[in-house]
Amino acid sequence: MLVRYFGGIAVHLGFDIDGVIANFSLPLIERIRRDYGVVVKESDIYCYDLNVVFGITKAEETKLVEDILIDNLPLYDGAKETLEQLNKEGHSIYLLTGRWGHLREATEMWLKENGVHYTELHLLDVGKKYQANVAPLDVIVEDSLGEAIEWSGKVKNILIYDHPWNKTLNVRGLTKRVYCWSDIYHEIQQLQASRNR
Fold this sequence. Notes:
about 200 residues; alpha/beta; Rossmann fold
């Protein structure tokens, strides 16, 4: 059954949390400065594997990431307002994150405290989010290039939130790069417009 709103058809939207809704980079950069005495910029984070970027063990990476995830991460500008608007328009909003299952309660609390609107929250294995058992998605927004490419068999509109760690030549045009939440909203509106023709 199609849900209609304001003359359009509601769509199923998938969003990663960290690197798309939550700014993971700022607290990561601060933590690296504090714990290791090294000053880095976001542009220094050249790949998704933080143990490779910083020359630390996988165990150190896991602890670093978990410590940051249980912190109160800041939202990217426009994330809350755009998700609220998409919710008002009747779209289904699926949050698909590689956060560990034991962080579900902390994640739900963070979402509530920050007023982030969503339909369903799915905590999934990193590198396997594309295997999520959710309604067929019309759009997915990711910061992990590997995850984004894996969605290509399941989702037609794959948006990659621009970061230094997800640069690609994109020779097959599987993804479209977005730079902010107004870009994301614009892409969703373009999809709406094409469906209403």
